[in-house]
Amino acid sequence: MTIQANKQASLSLTRSDIEDFLFYEASLLDSWQLEDWLILFVEGAQYWVPPAGADDLVDPASTLFYVADDYFRLTERVKRLGKKTAHVEWPKSKCRHMVSNVRILDGTEDEFHVTSNFVTYRSKGGVTETYLGHHNYTLCLVDSEIKITKKVSFLDVDNINDQGKVSIII
Known about the structure:
alpha+beta; 3 helices; 39% strand
């Protein structure tokens, strides 16, 4: 399944189009369809998870990130999480990604910046962990389909001591 822009004369996207895309992304992550999730990204895309509590201007060139994947590393992460040798996620955690407060910040007809809030629940071994924060996306249109150029998942907490790790895709 792909989410396409409304086929209006100008191909302009509505917040509803973006919400549908982000809800679809969340459903793929919840069901561990990581290869289908990867297809949502353009080749050359980036996926970052800065340290807990970081501000929106943080840069992996000067700060140690939990995740700072280019497209190749993201592809390898998806492959690794799909294998039984990814011990921390075998068997798979139960996850639920909640998306809200979706806003289109700016952009052109071909590339736009979007933010949304999230709460991600991860349950495994009788323990449920909560990750909350906001995503900043750079999205683009490729053949009338919405694609991710860059996704940055900010954890809006002081630390992740209670969670201990980020082994899932937030």
